[in-house]
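Lay summary. Proteins are chains of building blocks that fold into shapes, and those shapes determine what they do. In this project we predict the shape from the chain. Here is one chain we studied, written as its sequence of building blocks.
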Amino acid sequence: MVNWATAPPCRDCALKGKFLICCAFPMKLTGLLILPALASATLTGVNLGGWYLIEEWMFSNGQFDRVAEMSDLPQGVIMPPLLPDGLGENWYGEGDLVNKISSKYDDDFAVKVIEAHRDSYITDEDIKKMKESNITAVRMPLGWWAFVEESLSDTPVVITDPAHSDMKFVTITHDALASQIKRFADEDIDVLLDIHAMPGGSSQGSYSGIFPSTPMFWDSGDLLNQGLDIVTALCDFYLGLDSSLQSHVTGVTLINEPAHNMNSEGALTEKLTAWLSQAIDIYRQKVVLAAENVPVPMLYVNLIETALQPQQIVDFFHDTFSASELEEWAILDIHHYFAWDGGHNGCYDGSCAYTCADSATSEGLDSITSLIGDGAVSSHQFFFDNGTIPLVSCSEYSLATYDLSASSCRGSTILTAMHDEQAKGFENQGLYGAYFWTWKMPYGGTHEEAWSLKNFLGIEES
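And here is the predicted shape, written in a compact code that computers can read:
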């Protein structure tokens, strides 16, 4: 089903100015994994969604099938291993989940529930299977609660969102985070650290942590400053790692999908770009310019077209980075999901760009494959054609053809076409890399088939 070619290790380096540039050889496609040609390239692979950043739809336990969250319908049902049957009420996102556990029981039990999940979700067997599947990098979504003062303690505690008193989180200690990086490093798998949520909520969506409450991050100077402190803490965490672990931090993302579905009128554009420029400069000063002829983690600057127009994104990049920075460590990261691509999506009811049943004939499958290929090859092309941005990546994509999983196309025929055409499209565009969303989704019900790489590879335990 998938040709997982064996790839050479990424260890050949040469000094270029102040930077040690590694693995500067042509891109090679290896199944879902792409070996890039520029900068300190590594093979890329898969997200660890649902682990240290909990989204409700991934724990819907077969009761719901909408990927996009609904503000009037909490879809979170269970939280194994300590709450395998749920709370007796559903929950919206991580902040709501922890708050409801604390309210029903107490903070200590909330810590136990979340820590039991963190300790058991990604197992040693998972990491072994990633290694066997030639995955050499994982993207680890993290909440802001991994980079607060309380994270320096060796004991996780419950903290409250500064803008929403009914949203609580269990801190991620730096010791725990370092130990998880070591688990992957021991298997020679690199880690991309991704700040997926900011205090007060920086995007619309359950991954903001505070859903369904209103995101407040962009409207508060105090929260914006706290966000910069969190970026600083991320840099300090990286700098404090042992060099053997630093070498396995392949990249960082300072904020995920900033202002997603919040900037339709453009009112947040100036705040968003100004804050992000400050955050990038913190990384530049603390990590890049302080490096002494050693590789630095690539900076994956994640932006989304529901907040900024494509040309605004291009302009921001050229206003923010020098030509050498764009070639050496600054990556434009744009997610792409067919589930929300109205021109290239597929479903069973005839309301999409194609109907899943058409794959039953060779002519129909050829037409579907061509449409998928067109969407994949053009997913990031604007930024190459109009922006002369050399490093472009896609840190999230999946096999889902529609955002209602029960109506999304199923079965190996279309899912294999989705996989293969995206891999070819990303290669043809010259993407720096691509990370599948996500590794596993055992409690996701109808979502699992198109959103779990482990399931697609046929190695998920029954």
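What the prediction tells us: The two ends are 20 Å apart (CA to CA).
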